[in-house]
Specification:
single chain; about 120 residues; alpha+beta; Aminopeptidase; 4-stranded mixed beta sheet; two-stranded antiparallel ribbon; 2 helices; about 30% strand; globular
Length: about 120
């Protein structure tokens, strides 16, 4: 369920069945020592599920919703199927690398690619 200034969600339904679900959460940052701007409102892509193959269109909708709600930046990771639409929507690759440490977990054989990873942050 959506919570103002915390998490926002968007669903698509066909008759009485929900076919697509998209959401983002908010993590604002304080801007220090600036006369005009005091806060940077950042939206982070959260859960995105589409049974109709409209991941890109759903993310476009989320970008519009986040802009209408006054967010300044929208971030998304290139995990799971996100890479299939991020470049089409003109997302830039970040300038750093994320490292996930999962306690007591071994991933065997070869390198793990972002599209092979599904991660739920709580």
């Amino acid at each position: 369920m959506p919570r103002d200034k915390v998490i926002h969600s968007y669903v698509v339904e066909n008759v009485a069945t929900i076919t697509d679900f998209f959401s983002f959460y908010s993590l604002p940052s304080t801007i220090l020592k600036h006369e005009q701007h005091k806060e940077l409102r950042v939206a982070y892509s959260y859960y995105n599920v589409s049974t109709t193959g409209r991941l890109r269109e759903g993310m476009e909708d989320m970008l519009v919703v986040s802009k209408e709600l006054g967010y300044d930046v929208f971030n998304a990771l290139d995990v799971m199927e996100n890479d299939s639409f991020l470049s089409q929507l003109k997302f830039n690759i970040g300038d750093g690398h994320l490292h996930y440490y999962i306690y007591n977990w071994r991933v065997g054989g070869g390198d793990l690619l972002p599209q092979d990873l599904g991660l739920v942050l709580v």
